[in-house]
Amino acid sequence: MCPADPPRSAFCRVPREISHLLIGAVYHPPKANNAEMMDYLIGVLDTVNRDHPNLGILLCGDFNQLPEFQLRSYPLTHLVSTPTRGTATLDKIFTN
Question: Average of pLDDT values for 23-43?
């Protein structure tokens, strides 16, 4: 599942009484490949979600210029509503 040189991210699955909670910490460098990172993130989410269909997801970190439409359609909700660096919202939190 993981590429030879995976994007900078960390995931931890935490058992809960009802299901599980997936916590993902992401750093997407400013000049990194957006498609590669999005494929990686969606791949991780798909894999874990298949094994744990009632999974809670908390995905946070520095996403820089990574387009978020695929994460929102997963469906994940973006919780940060104010700029985090200048006028840009680069640091984000997504959850279901």
Answer: 92
